[in-house]
Amino acid sequence: METEDPTPDPQPPRNPVARAFAWVVAGPAAPLIPLAWIAAAVLAVLYLPALAPEAGSLADYTPRDTPAIATEARSARIFGQPISRVAVVQRDPAGLSPAVQRETVAAAVDLAQQPRGGLLGALPLVNDPRIWPQGDEQATTAVTYLYFAPETSWREQVDLARAYASQRLTHADASVVGVTGSVPARVAQEDAIAERLGAVEIATVILVALILGVTFGSLLAPLVTLLAAGVAYVIGSRLVALAGRELGLTPPSEIDPLVVVLLLGIVADYAIFYLSGARERLGRGGGRGEAVRDTTAQLTPIILTAGLMVAAGTAALLAATQATFRSFGPGLAISVLAGLVVSVTFIPAAMATFGRALYWPRGLRASGSDDRERPGWLARQRERVGHLATHRAAALGTVVVCVALLLVAASGLRWIGLGLDFISGLPSSSEPRQAAQAATAGFAPGILSPTEVLLQKPGVGTQAEQLTSLEEAIARQPGVAAVVGPREQPPDPRIPFAVAPDMNAARYYVVFSTDPLGSSGIDTLESLQAAMPGLVREAGLTDVRVGYAGDTAIAAFTVGRTIGDLGRVGLAVIVIDIILLALFLRSLAAPLYLVAASVLALAAALGATTYFFRLLSGPDGLTYYVPFAASVLLISLGSDYTIFVVGRIWEERKVRPLRGAIETAVPKARSAVSVAAVTLALSFSMLAIVDLWSFRQLAFLLAAGVLIDAFFVRSLLVPALVALFGRTWTGEAAERGAEASAGGGPQGPPASAPKAPSAQSTQSTPNPSRHPEPGRLEPGHIDGSRRRGAA
To answer: What pTM does this model have?
Structure first.
C-alpha cells in the first residue's frame, strides 16, 4: 500500500508584510545591508560610550532602604567609625610573638591619633584566650579591621589597606597574609571578570564556529554568523552603556560576559533557523532569490516573536526593587533587541548575496529533511513512531512520564539556599580568599564579617552587668562562634569600641560559625533576631532599641527582597509571554499550558543545579542573583523555542489535520531546535571560564535549563500536550462553523478523514511556488479547532 508523503514541499508564505520585508532584505539591495551594519558598528565605536563598569559603593548592590544600612549609619555617628569591610590578616601557626602583637596594637593606636587620607582608624583583634576563649589556638592570628571614610572608593580602600600593612606592620615576623573582606573580595571579582572576559569571547566564538561549520559543512556560514554577532555585540554593548549613562543605572560587571554569550548564542540560534530553512528550499531545486525570500518571509515573524519575548522578559527586570536587577534588565533587553534586528536583516541579506556558496564545501546534499530521500523501511518506522506518539493514550503517557521526571529534578529546590559569595566564591589563589582562610583557621568563618548588634537607650552604657549577661546569652545561641562587646571594652578611651562615650549606646560584634554571607549564616542571623527580644528581657534590659548592621544583615535583607522581586518579575515575564504567545498562536488557552511547561522546566533546572553544587561542596548556597537572572532568561528562552516548534505545527496545520501536522512538523523543527539549543547551551557554559563560583553556577543553570527545555520539554512534553489538549479549546460548535465557512475544509481529504494530503496530490504540484492556497484555517490553528479529522 502506498504511504503518504510526510513532507510536502514548503508552502510559499502568504503574509504580505513578511513577503515585503523579505523582498527588502533579500532582494536586489541585499549586498548593501551587511555593509551598512558594519558601518553602523564603526560609528558606534567612534561616537558611543564603551561598556566599562566600575566598582561602586556597597549600596549600589543592595537595596538602599535596607534597615541594616540605617543602623550602620547610626552606629557610625555614635562611635565615629563606619563598619569595617576591609581587614589585614596576620597568621603564624607557631604563634605571633609578643613583639609582633605590640606592633599590631601600636599601629592601630597611631592611626587613631593621625588618620591618613580616607583611612580613619583600625581595630586589632588577636585570638588570645582572654578575648577568644572558644579557639584551640593561642595568639596565632591577628585580624586588624580598617575603617574608611564613606566617600573612599573600593579600590582606594584596598590600596590604603595594603599600604597600611606594608608601612606599619614591618616586623620581620609580622606574617602578613594579605588584605581581605567583602570589599577586597568584590574588587577581586571585578578583576577576575575583566581578566577572563577575552577568553570567554574567544572560546564562545570558536565554539559557535565549530558547531555551525559541522552542522552545515560550511566555511562561510560560520563566518557570516559570527560577523553578524560581532556587529550586534558592538552596537548592543555601546547602546547598553549609553542607556546606563542616560538612565543613571551603572551596569554591574557581571553583565559583560553574559551579554557576550547571550548575543553570540541567540544570533547563532536565529542563523541556524534561517540557514536550515534556506538549505531545505535550495535543496529542493528552488532558485536562490525565491528560496531565500520564502525562507525569510516564513521565519522572520516567528523569529521576531521569539526575540521580542526574550527582550520583553529581560526588560521585565525593571519591575524589580533592587538596583542590581534593574540595571541588568535594560542591558540584557537592549542586547537581545540588537541581536534580533541584526539577525533578521544581516543574515537573510548574506544568504541572498552568497546563495549556494554559503554551504560550501559540503553543499546542499545534507539537507536531508525530505523523508522521501531516506530508505523506505526507515521512513516507515519513523512515521509509525511519530503516528503512535500523537495518539491520545500515548500522549497522555508521555505527559505523565515527563512531568514526573521534571518534578523529581525539581525536588532539589527544597535544598536551595541563597547567599552572597563575595569571598567564598573567589578562586583559592586570590589574596582575599587566602587571607580569609587564614583568619578562619585562627578564629571562625564569620570573623571577617561580624554582625553588629546595636543597643540604644539613655544610660545603657552604665549597665555593665546587664550588658555582660546579654553578651553571654548571645554567645550561647546556635551558630554563634563568639561575641566581642562591652566586656572586652579596651581601657584606652582613644579606641572607641563597644560603649559609646556618652553611655547612650552599646554594641556587640557577633561572629558566626559558618560563612556569614552564605545561606547558613543568614539563617543564623534570622534565628538570633527572633530570639533577641527574649534575651534582652532576660538580661534585665528594658526599653532598648535593637538594630543589626553588617554584611550578613544586608545579605539577609537582600535575599528576602530578591525572593519578593523574583515573584514580581516572574509574574510579569509569565504574563508577557502568555500575551505574546496568544497573539502569535491566536489562542487563549494554549499559551497557558505552554508557559506552564516552561516554568516546570525552570524548576527542574534549578533543582538539578542545587543537587549538582551540593555534591561539589561549593559555597553555602547559590549566589542570590543567579536563580533570578537565570529564571528570567530561561522562561523567555523556553517560550522562544516554543515559538519555533509550535510555529512549525501551525504551518503544517494549515494543510493537514492536527495529528498529521504534529507528526510532520515536530521532527523537522526538532532538528533545528536541537542544534540551536546545543549552541546556546554551550555558549552559556563558556561563562564558567570566569573563575568565580557565581559564574559557574550561572553557566550550569543556564546550560542545563536550555538543554532540558529543548530536548525534553519542547521535543516531548509540548508535542504531547498539543496532541492531548489541542482539539478541545474552542469546542465542537466553533469547529463545525469553521469547516462550513471553509467549504468543507481545505483542499485535501474531507473533515472526517484521518490522513493528510496524499502523496499523489502532493506530487501533482512539485513546485512550492505553484501550490494552491490552503483554506482559511489560521484562527485557532494550534487548538485543532478547524478539523476534527485529526482525532
So the answer is: 0.81
